[in-house]
């Protein structure tokens, strides 16, 4: 058995995790970041889904915290909002939001954090191009859950759901992926740490 196969997977914030208190702090910080970026919301005419900074937060959380902690953070964000805390876009909260037209995007946050966290553990956040691909893929997962949910809850046909819940967000998604592509590889260089094996 190789060393690479037995060493833990690596991710950017690994040195700051590992104890109960540190993990709680990381998850709390991720929830706060997502809640803050959610308040950057621009309404889209004809769509119940606004352009927000939430998906950028999901990219950053998923790629820096690894799969387990990323899922925990996004799950906590969805749960706290569902319980009524005003952490969703425009200070919204409550189970009605989760069950409403935009609820699928919130569930997609958890899915995206899981997949992005796992891919980041395997080194996909080390170079700008791969991080861009990681960010775009993560957002695609969010829309893969959010758009069908929107169609079902809002009573839209597939074309209407895509027009209202996907098309207006493509350019913004690419921009967010590019931001991640610049930030994360630079952060790896800043911490000057040799990543551990990624064949876990």
From TrEMBL:
Q: What is this protein called?
A: Biotin transporter
Q: State the membrane topology.
A: Multi-pass membrane protein
Q: Which domain of life is it from?
A: Bacteria
Question: Any keyword Membrane?
Answer: yes
Keyword Membrane appears in the UniProt entry: yes
Species for this entry: Promicromonospora umidemergens
Q: Which family does it belong to?
A: Belongs to the BioY family.
Q: Where is the signal peptide?
A: none
Checking InterPro entries in the record gives: BioY
Residue spans crossing the bilayer: 24-42, 48-64, 71-89, 95-120, 132-156, 162-184
- Keywords tagged on the record: Cell membrane, Membrane, Transmembrane, Transmembrane helix, Transport
Q: Give the UniProt subcellular location, in the record's own words.
A: Cell membrane
């Amino acid at each position: 058995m190789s060393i690479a196969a037995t060493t833990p997977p690596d991710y950017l914030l690994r040195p700051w995790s590992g104890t109960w208190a540190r993990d709680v702090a990381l998850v709390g910080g991720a929830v706060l970041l997502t809640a803050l970026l959610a308040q950057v919301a621009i309404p889209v005419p004809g769509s119940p889904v606004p352009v927000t900074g939430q998906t950028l937060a999901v990219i950053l959380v998923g790629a820096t915290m690894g799969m387990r902690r990323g899922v925990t953070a996004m799950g906590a964000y969805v749960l706290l909002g569902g319980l009524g805390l005003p952490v969703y876009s425009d200070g919204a909260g409550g189970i009605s939001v989760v069950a409403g037209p935009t609820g699928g995007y919130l569930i997609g946050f958890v899915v995206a954090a899981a997949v992005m966290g796992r891919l980041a553990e395997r080194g996909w956040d080390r170079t700008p191009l791969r991080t861009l691909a990681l960010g775009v893929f993560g957002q695609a997962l969010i829309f893969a859950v959010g758009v069908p949910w929107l169609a079902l809850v809002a009573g839209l046909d597939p074309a209407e759901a895509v027009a209202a819940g996907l098309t207006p967000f493509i350019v913004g998604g690419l921009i967010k992926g590019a931001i991640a592509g610049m930030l994360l590889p630079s952060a790896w260089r800043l911490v000057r740490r040799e990543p551990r094996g990624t064949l876990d």
